[in-house]
Design a protein that fits this description.
This protein is an alpha+beta fold and 91 residues long. The chain has one helix at residues 60-89, and strands at 5-11, 22-30, 33-43, 48-49, 54-55. The protein has a 3-stranded antiparallel β-sheet, covered by helices on one side. Strands 4-5 form a two-stranded antiparallel sheet. 10% of the residues are buried.
């Protein structure tokens, strides 16, 4: 049986801070299980693209945030692959 990991991001519009920034949440779907965790990143809701799960624009903030989201996604996939390999190697 294959296991599928899906990583996506969204913002919580209802949790704006005093600077009107919303937290970026990581949604992990592993087969039929869904978990949501904070990325510890915040962005103004007007800059967020829910279609692409990224920050829009070419500003330094947008570029830096998108790179951080990509790093987070890559690390999660790496951990997932490492745990999959470890479970296969164990008798």
């Amino acid at each position: 049986m294959s296991t599928i990991l899906v990583v996506s991001f969204y913002i919580k519009h209802t949790r704006l801070n005093v600077n009107n920034e919303a937290p970026i949440i990581i949604r992990l779907n592993l087969d039929d299980t869904r978990r949501e965790i904070s990325s510890k990143l915040r962005i103004k809701p007007g800059l967020w693209s829910s279609r692409f799960n990224t920050v829009t624009g070419t500003s330094d903030v947008a570029k830096r945030t998108n790179k951080l989201l990509e790093v987070i996604k890559n690390r999660l996939f790496l951990r997932f692959l490492q745990s999959s390999v470890m479970s296969i190697q164990q008798p």
